[in-house]
Specification:
Strand content: 5-15%
Radius of gyration: 23 Å
Order of helices and strands: HEHEEHEEHH
Helix content: 10-25%
Strand order of the largest sheet: 2-3-5
Structural class: alpha+beta
Distance between the termini: 62 Å
Shape: elongated
Number of strands: 5
């Protein structure tokens, strides 16, 4: 034992006494919700193209990238009569289980069409387990002005490349 080892407990109590008399910051959550940082990872959102078609092509890369196995995607083929996305496929079933999700953002990085992004919404608590499994309808971004609810024909061009070029800077 060194000559100053007996001072260590006293130094520890000094830190305790120093913080005991500081003013505690009280947060009135949920009445007052503080703004989040711009890069905050909150609830997921499935984005749309400017004409209302879904960006998700049902590739399932987000599900493969998820370390918590919280995402379930089931793809289906588009037809000329029922087109939900500009590609050959779309995500027929899309679910995120927020009981398992760790909000790491790896699914966002894996998405080739930027169909999946994260919002700043962080209030994900609920009283039932079933309500924390978000379905495609709950995750889809709302229709904006000039958008038409799918299924409908492609409005921004004849090919997928047109959509990627025109929608590159959107959502």
């Amino acid at each position: 034992m060194g000559a100053t080892d007996w001072l260590n407990p006293i130094k520890g109590f000094g830190v305790t006494f120093h913080t005991m008399f500081k003013k505690v910051e009280t947060v009135n959550y949920p009445e007052e919700q503080r703004p989040t940082a711009p890069r905050f990872h909150g609830r997921h959102q499935l984005n749309r193209w400017p004409d209302g078609l879904e960006k998700c092509v049902g590739c399932e890369l987000c599900a493969w990238a998820c370390p918590a196995d919280a995402i379930f995607v089931e793809g289906a083929d588009n037809t000329d009569e029922e087109r939900f996305s500009p590609g050959e496929r779309y995500g027929r079933t899309y679910q995120i289980n927020y009981l398992r999700c760790i909000l790491c953002g790896l699914c966002i990085e894996a998405c080739p069409t930027r169909a999946l992004t994260m919002t700043n919404e962080y209030d994900l608590a609920d009283t039932s387990r079933e309500s924390l499994i978000y379905t495609k309808e709950m995750l889809l971004s709302p229709l904006g002005p000039g958008m038409e609810a799918p299924p409908h024909a492609m409005r921004l061009g004849e090919t997928e490349e047109d959509y990627y070029r025109l929608g590159r800077n959107n959502g």
